[in-house]
Write a structure and sequence with these properties.
This protein has about 190 residues and is α/β, with parallel strands linked by helices. It has a single domain (about 20-185), classed as UDP N-Acetylglucosamine Acyltransferase, domain 1 (3 Solenoid). Helices cover about 30% and strands about 20% of the residues. The chain is built from four helices and 15 strands. The protein has helices spanning about 10-15, 20-30, 40-55, 60-80, and strands at about 80-85, 90, 95, 100-105, 110, 115, 120-125, 135, 140, 145-150, 155, 160, 165, 175, 180-185. The strands form four sheets. It has a five-stranded parallel beta sheet. It is globular. The relative contact order is 0.13. It binds coenzyme A. Coenzyme A (COA) binds near residues 177, 184 and 187.
């Protein structure tokens, strides 16, 4: 019998993040080892800021914040090589370890306490299906260089091995390695 990956409820994800902007950023700073100089922390903090400014209903009042956000987003992308658009549904305490070649599709969902490392792509698989993007549950541990492609679902507590290319759903609690990624066992790192 095939085990279905745990479905990820996006509205639940939003409900679990009712923190104010500074509370969110403080939590992210703690998750990143209290080091504000880490590129991953900066990328996440700017993502939070990008979302916060969208709550300003008036376009006119929002405009200066949008200018600042776009400047900072491009700076993080161009300097650190971390492309994390504000429209990604990012859970709490997500850690971006290291930097460079980290590309996250704008329609991705990333659950609480996930770890994303250098060289990771979470993106679409086919150019003619540009909006297909992966959904990661909570505590997904993505190894360096891994590529997770297409509208697939990665369950809670999944380990994705370094340099894996994941093309199919992975049920909760499993470890997937290789190209294309195959499940090896249910242990955590
Ligand atoms: C996937 C991972 C979590 C596996 O950990 P594990 O559950 O302890 O698995 P094991 O080490 O027992 O390996 C099980 C099998 O998978 C293989 N394997 C492990 N990681 C692999 C990987 N990334 N790619 C391909 N095969 C891998 C092992 O060689 C072993 O194969 P074997 O049974 O034929 O000997 C770990 O190897 C990994 O890739 N972690 C990523 C960490 C990372 O990115 N670090 C960078 C820090 S900057």
């Amino acid at each position: 019998m095939t085990v279905q990956p745990q479905s990820i409820n996006e509205s639940q994800l939003q409900e679990t993040t009712p923190l104010k902007l500074w509370e969110q950023i403080k939590e992210d700073w703690i998750a990143h080892g209290r080091d504000w100089t880490k590129p991953g922390f900066r990328a996440v903090a700017i993502h939070r800021f990008g979302n916060w400014r969208m709550k300003i209903a008036s376009k006119l009042l929002r405009a200066p914040f949008s200018i600042i956000y776009r400047f900072l987003y491009r700076r993080v992308r161009n300097v650190y090589g971390i492309d994390l658009p504000y429209c990604v549904k990012l859970g709490r305490r997500v850690i971006i370890e290291h930097q460079s070649c980290i590309i996250i599709h704008g329609d991705c969902v990333i659950g609480d306490d996930c770890i994303i490392r250098q060289g990771v792509t979470l993106g679409n698989r086919y150019r003619d299906r540009p909006f297909d993007a992966p959904k990661l549950g909570a505590r997904v541990n993505v190894g360096a260089g891994a590529k997770v492609l297409g509208g697939i679902t990665i369950g809670d507590d999944v380990n994705i091995g370094a340099n894996a290319v994941v093309l199919t759903d992975i049920p909760a609690g499993q470890t997937a390695v290789g190209i294309p990624a195959k499940i090896i066992k249910g242990n955590r790192e």
